[in-house]
Amino acid sequence: MYEPSKIMQSFFIAGFQYHDGALALKKLKAGKKLELIAEPDNPHDPDAVAIYRKGVHLGYVPGDSNATIAQLLRFGHANVLECRIMQVDKKADPWKQVRVGIYVTDNRKQKKAE
């Protein structure tokens, strides 16, 4: 059974209504894994972290929550983070339709198996 280690943050996807989130909304379900991609060249925020699902750009980690995540991604520690959908509410305002959680993975279990 899947068991994430520890939730680091949870938030609604920022900019969901401005990207391709609406195109993917029907396929988004709680528990689905998302991809985090740092965008250090983003003209609006050098700590921007984009959120994708199967190549579809859903939006961003909110600006007030992205600095630590961006730094971990830039320094090659993406493997310690896991982003998953926590809640989907298709009837909510677009900016509150998808809540995600960022989890810190537990590598202790892997080390014991080795």
TrEMBL record:
The HIRAN domain is annotated at: 8-106
Identify the domain of life: Bacteria
Q: Which residues cross the membrane?
A: none
Q: Which GO terms describe its biological process?
A: proteolysis
Report the leader peptide range: none
Keyword Protease: yes or no? Answer: yes
The GO molecular function terms of this record are:
hydrolase activity, acting on acid anhydrides, in phosphorus-containing anhydrides; nucleic acid binding; peptidase activity; zinc ion binding
Q: Does the keyword DNA damage apply?
A: no
Task: Tell me the keywords, alphabetical order.
Answer: Hydrolase, Metal-binding, Protease
Q: Which Pfam families match?
A: HIRAN (PF08797)
What protein does this entry describe?
Serine protease
Q: Which organism is it from?
A: Slackia isoflavoniconvertens
